[in-house]
Each structure stands twice: as C-alpha cells, then as structure tokens.
C-alpha cells in the first residue's frame, strides 16, 4: 500500500462512515480497485481506520451528550446485540464475508432497493419538530441494536440499518441519525480493539505511517460529512442514497467482478 492509496482510503472512510452507503463495503471495493492483496493487514487496516471517523463523533458531541447518562444507557443497550453476535460470528465475518466482493455488491444493491422502498412505504414528511432522544425507549434502543447487527454483513451499512430501524419505530429523522452516530462509538471501538487484539502481528512499524495518515484523514473528512448529513436530512429523504447504492453496485460489478 502506498501513501496515496492510504490517503484515498482515509477519504473514502471519512465520507462514507456515517452515510447509509456502507463504509466497509466501499473500503473493500476501493482495495479491489487498487489491487491491494487480500491480507489480514488490509482487513485489520480497514477496520482500524474507522476509529478516526468515530473520533469525530466524540469531538462533535462531547458537550451535548457525554454527561447524559440516560443516552449512554440506551446506546449501551443498543450496542449489546452486535457485541454478542459479532463475537460469535467474528471468524465467519473476517475469513469469508470481508473477502467477498459479491457479498458487498449484493448488500449494496439490495440495501439500496430497501432504502427506496422503505421511504416510499413510510411516506412521512420531514418534521420540523423532533422530540429528541427522549423518544427512544429502552425497548426501541434494543430493537435498533438488533437492526444494527444486520450490518455485520459488509455492504449493508451500519448507519442505514440503524436509521431504517429507528424510522420504522417512529423515531424522528434527526434523532435517529444522531443516535446512529453515538452508537457507532462503542460498536467500532469494540470491533477495532478486538480485531487488533487478535491480529496485532499483522502490523509492523513500517506500516504505522499508513495507518496514521488514513486515521487522521478519515477523522477530518468525517467531521465535514456529519455536519453535511445533519443539514441534508432536514429537507431530504434517503431515496438519493438508495439510488446511489444501486448504481454504485452495478458500476462496481462491472469494474471489480471479473
């Protein structure tokens, strides 16, 4: 991996982490386009640089929610299903799912169709008022966590799964998007820590500068991506992201699958 490739991967991660289009899926496909070897280092690298994007949530929401114990109780409850299922299926995810371009593309394509159909079915106008995190009960938080666990399949998109799950439960758009941001913190922190614990030997000091560059770039780009998404959802649905996913899957299928 070159510095240029690490830079591009950092940008891709920062842009896609919080949009409902799957950051993991885009990182895998970008790696395929760069012809990067399918190694434990690359898989762990793609997981680890997500911490850079996650750090942007901590910075942006530090004052707003850090001291709010009720919010973090709900976040912890929503995190639980993915924590348990991720531990059980870690080997399957790492050895098979993260190596399959076909899985990513099918997940991107079908996820895009689901986003489009859901918004058509939902038919809810954008609300100017949003009750906030108080509208997320313990039961709803747990159900959102179950929805998030589907995103263990690369290409599904963790944010898409949680957002659709929250909207289906009647939670306001801005609230579920922000809750998805917060839920990403323990989810990706745990995934990265566990993966590095299992695969620390796949890294060496000569590759540290690549990881550092992608980490910093993903953090900076994610800051802008989060602010943009919060403005976007005030006047738009997620149909555009669904269309993008379908088109991207078809284009990547021609470029990646041979």
Low-confidence stretches: none
Structural class: mainly alpha
Strand content: under 5%
Number of strands: 0
Radius of gyration computed on alpha carbons: 17 Å
Order of SSEs, N→C? HHHHHHHHHHHH
Helical residue percent? Answer: over 70%
Major sheet: size, sense and barrel closure?
A: none
Kindly report how far apart the N and C termini lie: 22 Å
Whole-number count of domains: 1
Helix count from the secondary structure assignment: 12
Arithmetic mean pLDDT: 82
Please state the overall shape, judged from the principal axes of the Cα atoms: globular
Report on this model:
With about 260 residues, this protein is mainly α. The protein has one domain (about 5-255). The chain is about 75% helix and about 0% strand. It contains twelve helices and no strands. Helix 2 (about 25-35) crosses helix 3 (about 40-50) and helix 5 (about 70-90) crosses helix 10 (about 175-200). The longest helix has 27 residues, at about 175-200.
Task: Give the secondary structure arrangement, pairings included.
Elements: H1 3-16, H2 23-33, H3 40-48, H4 50-65, H5 69-88, H6 90-95, H7 101-122, H8 138-149, H9 158-168, H10 173-199, H11 208-232, H12 239-256
Helix pairs in contact: 1-2, 1-11, 2-3, 2-7, 3-10, 4-10, 4-11, 5-8, 5-10, 7-9, 7-12, 8-9, 9-10
């Amino acid at each position: 991996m070159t510095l240029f490739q690490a830079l591009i991967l950092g940008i891709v991660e920062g842009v896609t982490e919080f949009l409902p289009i799957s950051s993991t899926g885009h990182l895998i496909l970008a790696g395929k386009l760069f012809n990067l070897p399918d190694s434990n280092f690359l898989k762990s690298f793609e997981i680890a640089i997500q911490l850079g994007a996650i750090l942007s949530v901590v910075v942006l929401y530090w004052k707003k929610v850090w001291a709010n114990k009720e919010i973090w109780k709900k976040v912890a409850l929503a995190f639980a299903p993915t924590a348990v299922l991720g531990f059980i299926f870690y080997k399957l995810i790492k050895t098979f799912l993260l190596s399959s371009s076909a899985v990513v593309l099918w997940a991107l394509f079908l996820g895009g169709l689901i986003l489009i159909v859901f918004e058509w079915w939902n038919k809810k106008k954008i609300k100017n008022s949003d009750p906030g995190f108080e509208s997320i009960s313990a039961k709803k938080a747990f159900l959102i966590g179950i929805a998030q666990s589907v995103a263990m399949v690369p290409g599904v998109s963790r944010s898409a799964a949680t957002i659709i799950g929250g909207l289906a439960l009647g939670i306001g758009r801005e609230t579920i998007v922000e809750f998805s941001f917060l839920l990403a913190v323990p989810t990706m922190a745990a995934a990265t820590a566990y993966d590095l614990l299992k695969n620390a030997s796949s890294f060496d000091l000569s590759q540290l500068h690549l990881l550092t560059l992608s980490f910093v770039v993903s953090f900076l780009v994610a800051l802008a991506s989060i602010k943009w998404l919060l403005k976007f959802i005030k006047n738009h649905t997620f149909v555009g992201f669904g269309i993008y996913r379908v088109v991207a899957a078809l284009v990547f299928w021609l470029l990646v699958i041979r």
